[in-house]
Structures are given as C-alpha cells and as structure tokens.
Amino acid sequence: MPLAPYASDPARSRGRRHPQPAAPTRSEYQRDRDRIVHSTAFRRLVYKTQVFLNHEGDLYRTRLTHSLEVAQLGRSIARTLGLDEDLVEAIALAHDLGHTPFGHAGQDALNEALREHGGFEHNLQSLRVVDQLEQRYPEHDGLNLTFETREGVLKHCSPSNARKLEAQEPGGVARRFIDGTQPSLEAQLTNLADEIAYNAHDIDDGVRSGLLSTEQLLTVPLFARFHAAALAEHPQLTGRRLLFEAIRRMLSQQIYDVIGATQARLQKYAPHSADAARQAPPLVCFSDAMREESRQLKSFLMRHLYRHPQVMATTGRAQDVVRTLVDAYLAAPSEMPPDFAQRPDLHRAVADYIAGMTDRFALREHARLTGTPAFEALS
C-alpha cells in the first residue's frame, strides 16, 4: 500500500546524527528496526518485568513480549491508515529499552534515589540507550537511529530535561515538548497501540495469576460487552477460551475504533505532509466513547491489579532491591564494571548500570552484595 501524504516517508527523513550512506536494500526505518532488534538492550527486555516479576511465572508478559505485541497492533493500524509500518515497528520495539528492572517499581525507586542528581525518566533513558549507551559501531556511540525513530522513542519528557536536550540538539527530538507540537503520526499511533496492548494483556495476566476474576472484569463495560458477545455466538465457551475470545474481540474493536476516529480527524484537519500533521492537534485517537471505556478499564486495572496487595508487596521488595543497589554502587563504585565505575558522573553511571539490568541480574547482584536473597523464589 502506498504511503499517505501525511506519513513519514523514509526517503524524506530528517536523517541521522552521524550521516551515513543509504542502504542498498532497506529503507531508513527498516535499518532502524534491524539495529534495535540486534541491540543488547533489546535482548534484555526478555527478562524485564511488565507487571509480574520474571521469577513469578514463565507465561506472563515481559517487556519484550509487550513490545512485540505493540509492534503487531501498530503495524496493523498503520497499514490501513497509509502510515509507514517500519517506523511504527521501530518505535514500538525501542520504546521500552530504557525501563529498569521490576517495571515501574524500579523506575520510581531509581528516580527517588537520584532525585538530587537529575532523577530518572524511562523515556529519556530509552533515548540514552539508542543515542549513547549501545556500543556496537566503530564510528560512534549508540545506534545512530533516524530523527523520526528517536522522536517516537521519547514519548514523554519533563520540561527541564526537554530544555537540556534542546540545548544539546537545537531543533531536535525534544523541541516539540517546548513548542507544543506533535510527534509524527507513526509515533502517535505507537503510543496508542502501547495502551491498547497493555490493557488487553494485563487482563490476561491478571486472570492467569489469580488476582483478577471474570466476575470482577464483568463490572468493566468494555470487557463485559465483548464477553457477552462471545457467549452469544459461542454458548459452549468457558474458561480461558472464553477469556481469550472476549479479549480478541475487544482488541479488534479498539483497532477499528482507532482507524475510524483517526480517519475522521485526518479528514477534518487534512494535513498535506508529515510536518503539517505535527502542527495539528493530536490526530491518532479513540472515539470519545471508546476513550471513556478505555479510561474505565485502566482505572479498574489500577485498583484491582496494579495495587493488589500481592503486587504491592512484590513492588515494595523490588524497590528495596533498587535502593540497596544504588547505595552500594555509590559507596563502592568498583563493584560495577570499570566502564561504569570510572565515569566522571558517578550518579548517572549508577543509573545507567542499574537501568540496564534484567530482573534476575538485579536480584543476583543484590544477593551478592548483601548476602541475602530478596525473594524466596529466586533460583
């Protein structure tokens, strides 16, 4: 399918920080995707928490499987809208590269521990990973991705960090947080695909864990609607087959809703180019009705899953692990590898080292440094 006029055309990319000749067989965004897939940070996502810690079970989502699901949903929608699928996939596969071990629990603990030294933002860290921390090429640090992929990776950014980035790269990926413009439509789409993916798979993982029940989920209008539709068409369905069918229908309807609502916005604002789309209000969106139903689902998951006492207990112990690691490395930098220990900015080196850890490596480091396992289930 040809690209729409408002899509990000790889032939018109704003380029890379370090200019390179074009590849003979791949577009610029295909090259970005391939570099991300082959990166060390991408491989680490397989052992990084989504909601449930890595040692709690083999079938729960990890950051890697979540990123793959976001890429699949994003490509499906991008194809219909005439957007660049490869750019969507590249952003989706890179958007969580900066996440700490233990999910948001680890991020919050690291941010608090380093509050007086710049704090920690996982979106900013994802950009650091692709711009600086990956070391795979002789000519430069980082993966040297295109502007458009880097722009999508930096999903959120605090005003203070945006100003710092803007000073380092005038008119670069942080400029939109200062002037109030939008990222590419591909980046907007990936953001929404991220939300759709985690809402759906957290239902699945929540039920699998025993922390959520179908009865509880039936109080959520979005889920209840498709659960009823699945039963109406397949009265014999029970258990996980019924759950999967309800989730499948819910995902499909959200995709169709995004396509319809976005097409209506595109028709209203009629952007004639990718840059024109950046100047418009956000264009990739749910309908008002689906946005409200999605909000209700997120609120339900926050109350009943993310703040479940069992999850909170695990979260607390995970945060203790991160705080202990920060204190240990600041007190004895030699406990880190030399390329981290010898950096002039010790606090940022500690943040980079810990953020790059998988769940299981962080637990092993904690046990090594303290002599005490943080979780009885640690093997």
TrEMBL record:
GO BP field: dGTP catabolic process
Keyword line: Hydrolase
GO MF annotation terms: dGTPase activity
CDD domains given in the database record: HDc
Region Disordered, residue ranges: 1-33
Domain of life per record: Bacteria
Occurrences of domain HD (ranges): 63-199
InterPro entries listed in its UniProt record: dGTPase, dGTPase-like, dNTPase_2, HD/PDEase_dom, HD_domain, PHydrolase_assoc_dom
Record-stated family: Belongs to the dGTPase family. Type 2 subfamily.
Protein name: Deoxyguanosinetriphosphate triphosphohydrolase-like protein
Source species of the chain: Azohydromonas caseinilytica
